[in-house]
Amino acid sequence: MAKHRTHSIDFKRQVVQEYLGGETLHSLSKHHDISRNLIRIWVEKYQAGALDEDAAAADLLQTYEARIAALERLVGRQALELEFLKGALRSGLRPKSEPTSAITGPAVFPSAKDAG
Fold it and tell me: Residues near 35 by Cβ (< 8 Å), separated by ≥ 6?
C-alpha cells in the first residue's frame, strides 16, 4: 500500500512552473515521482489562483499553531504556580491558638520515647 505524501506549496509551484516552462507531464512525473494527474490538478489550481490561497491558509495555520503553543506554555506555567500556591497555603495554615512568633516557634509535643 502506497503512503500518502503531502507536498509544500513551494514544491507545487515549482512543479507547475516547470510544466508551464515546457516540461512534459511524463518527465515531471518521473523526475519528482508524482502522478501526472496530480500535476494537472496543481496546474489547474495554480491557474485559478488557489495555490496562493493555500499559501495564505498555510501561513495563517502556522500563526495559529504558534499562538496555541504560546498559550499552552502559559497554561502550564500557571498550573505550576497554582500547585505551588496551594502547597504554600496548606503548609502555612496554623491554628490561631498556636504561637506565630519566630522566637518561640511552634509548640513542641513530647514523643512516646520521652513520655516513658
Answer: 29
